[in-house]
Amino acid sequence: MSSKSILDEYLARIDRLPTWGLSYLLLWALGIGYFATLYDAVSNLGFALPYIPFINPTQASIIVSVGLAGYIVGSIGLGITADRIGRRPVMILTFALLGIGSLGMGLATNYITLFIFRVIEGVGIGAGLNLAMVYISEFSPSMKRGKYANWIFISGWTAVGVGTVIAALIVTTYPTIGWRVIFLIPAVLSLITTAVLAVLSPESIRVLVKKGKITDVEKIVKKMEEVSMRRAKVSSLPQPRVIHYEEISSYNQLRILGEPKYLKRLISLTIFWFFIYFIQYTSTGLAPTFVKVVVGFSPIQYAEYIRFSGFAAIGATVISFILLGVVERTDRRLLTQIGGIGFLVSAYVSTYLLLHKALIVWFITYFILEFLLNPPYLAGYLMSSESFPTAARSTGFAITDGIGHLGGVIGPLLLFPLIGLVGPLLAWVVLAAPVPFAAALLWFTIPKTVGVRLEEINEGYIEKGIQKR
């Protein structure tokens, strides 16, 4: 029996499982790691920068951008490596780098040290966003893939919500050392994740079959079946629905992704992420500096804005829980389209209210807008992990998310020059305007993926002598 036929049978056995088949502690560890990843990416940096005494606003913009450059290196470099040598060792390295980078930032005493460790942290963030989602997708039954991916997504967006509140309260309560504390928190969490992954995480069965380690695969899948049956309190499982998929002849990732079928997905997802990050990282990284320098908030108003920002972000956490009941019933592309429109609306409304210093109205409005701004991330991460074949899955995700992060590098560098050219309100609208159009492009390039096996979306399959794509 060929290795491809063997893999098809193991995929069918996993697909029939009624629950998650690996340790829940592993899910918790990935959730904690994802919390640290998005906490570092979204929650803490923007609040910390204005309180760091040894940097100026120009250096703050560079710290935001250089971290995103690190994301690109991490996402693409470690993503390609994960496709070549395996998910497990690269994922462990990823969270170790995230922990070391965060620790170094928390202990930094000058701009150069902060710069270096921000790059290291950025490498870990970029790869973490990629590999955690790919890993969960490959071990989940297809009908529950969105559900389990959303569990770690909830952890990440708890960082965006609750984590933002914590960061805001710490830096305003302890303005001298608070910025250090909010970098040390994700350092500890990332290193905990690293330790748990080193002990509990198995290698992806798709990778193991490719390497010919069938005995290891049988042990993993058999244990998953036993664990899942015990959790679901059933004595037997349904017969596996084996589908024989078309084999990918090349294991050269770039050659695979260059095929027209995958290239259009790669390009459209890259464009989507570019413009999402273009506005997102400009907002999360520089909005506190914007209200302090451009709007001219007083120290009391600024502290109030920081606290309101934290509590408003809880809306992101609330909607991530709501998505548990929505994500497996709603087309991913619809979620991204709604969010794309939300970004444009938010850019105008939020900026207008901040310019008029209507903080309470802004807080209520932004809390509600989070219900629109959050779903595109889960939908986009899922589509990025679902739209490429096994041999190039991490690489495809890495390229779309990694090159997409160039938007996050460029956006922060454009904000203040744009404000000088067109004024603050129009500047934010210009940064957000491309997002709904980038989301619309996905309707023409990405297939519907809800409840569909990964190989069925990508490799195509052969059933009764008829090849299907």
From TrEMBL:
GO terms for molecular function: transmembrane transporter activity. Residues 1-450 form the Major facilitator superfamily (MFS) profile domain. SUPFAM superfamilies: MFS general substrate transporter. It is a multi-pass membrane protein. One of its GO terms (cellular component) is membrane. Coiled coil: none annotated. The keyword Membrane applies. It comes from the Archaea. Keywords: Membrane, Transmembrane, Transmembrane helix, Transport. The chain crosses the membrane at residues 21-39, 59-78, 90-109, 115-136, 148-171, 177-200, 305-327, 334-354, 360-383, 395-419, 425-444. It is found in: Membrane. This is MFS transporter. It comes from Sulfolobus tengchongensis.
